[in-house]
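Lab manual, section 2.4: Encoding a predicted structure.

Procedure: take the sequence of the chain (491 residues), apply the prediction step described in section 2.3, and record the output as C-alpha cells. A sample record is shown.
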Amino acid sequence: MSSEFVMGLDIGTTSVKACVFTLNGKLVAEVEKMNTSFYPHQGWVEQDPIEIEQAAILAIREVIDKAAIDKNELVTIGFSAAMHSLVCIGEEGTPISPALIWADGRSYEQAEKIIKTRGDKVYSQTGTPVHPMTPFVKLVWMKETEYEPYRKAQYFMSIKEYLLQCWFGKRVIDYSMASATGLFNPETHKWEQELLELAGIKEKQLSEIVPPTKTLIGINQSKAAEMGINPQMPFVVGAADGQLANLGIGAILPGEVAVSVGTSGAIRQLTKGVRISESQETFCYSFTEDTSIIGGPTNNGGVVLQWLKDLLEDDRSFTDFLADAKKAAPGADGILFLPYLNGERAPIWNQRAKGNFYGVSITHKKEHFIRAVLEGITFNLYQIGKALERLAGEPQKIYVNGGLARSPLWLQMMADIFEAEIYVSESHHSAAWGAAWTALVAIHKVESFEDIKKNIPMGKATLPNKDTSEIYKRIYQNYIELAKDMKKYFR
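Recorded output:
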C-alpha cells in the first residue's frame, strides 16, 4: 500500500513556500521561492502577481521532487495566503495592475477621511479597522484618483484568487480573505453593499464567497504538467495565513493565543461568533461559518531587524547577528525603540508613524541597538496583546511561530515580557500545516479541525525569568507613554 502525503502552499509577502507533510504533521520537504516587492513611490508597495503564480508552480514541482514522492501519493493541496492584496483584472482574466499589498500606504488620506466621516460604522459592519492596508480603502483611492487599471478592470482579486482563477478558471474567495478586504460583513457572510458603492464597484466584480473547505478539482492540464501533479487531485481553497497559523500551531481553544513574527507580525485568538472591540484596537475576521479570529497585526516584525542588519552592513548570518544582543543586558542600557518603520497597524493604526530610538548615548554599541530593536518589536506585540486581552480575557497559553521563533534569545524575551510560558512547534511552518490540515478536513481524511492538536510535534516550553520580567515591566511603562504620543507627531 502506498504512503499518503499532503501539501500546504503558503503565499506570503516575502516568499512562496510549498511544504509536504505526512498526514500526522511530520515535515517531509519544503521549498521556498522569494517574492520581489517594488517601491515606485514613497509609501507604495507592489508585487507582480504573474511572478508569484510562476513561483508557486515551481515551488510545488520542486518540493514534490525533493520529497521524492509519486504524484499519486499526494492526496491534496491546501492554500494559505497573506491578506489585503489587491489586483485589477482585465476581461481576459489577466492582471492589468500590479498587486498592491498590505504594506502599501498610498490611500492614507482616503483612510483618514473615512475614519472621520463613518469610521465607527464601517468597523461595526466589517470588524476590520479602516486603514490603507485594506482593499476597501485602496479601491476608494483608485476611484478618487481615477487610477487607470481600476477604470478598465473587469474584476478585483487578491493574489490568492488570481492563482485559483489561473489554475481552475473559477473566481472564489474564502471567508477569511473576504473579511480582510474590509468589504465583507462577518455576521451575514455577504459583501456589504453600502461599502461596495463607496468603492465604486459592483458585487459581480468580486469573487464568490466560499468556506475554507471548498474543494476544486480539474486543474488546467498544462498547469498540472508544470507542477508534476495528478490533474484530478483536489485543491482546497483554505484561508488566510493568520487563521491557518493559529490552526497549524494548535491555538484553537478559548484562552489560547498565537503570536506570529515573520516579515510582519500578529497576535491572534480564535473565537466563536463575531467579537468586535469598542476601542477598535483589534480586527475580527471570519474563518468558518461560526468561528472568527480576533487580534491585531503589526507592520514591523523581522523586516525591522533586516533593516538594521543592512544599515549596519553586517554580512553575517541572522543567527550570528542576533547573538550580539546577548552582550547587552535587558533594557539595552537605556535605549528604547519604537519599531514603526513601516507606519503601524495595531494598536495605533497610524500609517504615518515613524520608528524612533530614545535614550541613545555615546557609550552605546551595536549590541545595544540590536537588543533595543528586538525588545521594541516584542513590546509592540505585548501592547497589541493587552488590547486583545481586554476583548477576550487573559491568555491561558501562548504559542509562537514564524522566523523569529527560531531564536532562543527572542523566545526568552517573549516569555519575560509576557510573563508566560511560550510554546513552539518543532515545525516552523504553521500556516502551511494549517492549510494542509484544512485540506484533509475538506476531503474527509481527518474528522475535525480540533483533531490537529494530536498532530503537532511541540518543542520544550520557554519559561519566564521573574527578575527579568520585573525589569521589563518598568521599561514597558516608558515604552507605552512614548507610543501614546505618536499620533501628535506623525499625522
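Check your result against the sample. The radius of gyration is 22 Å.
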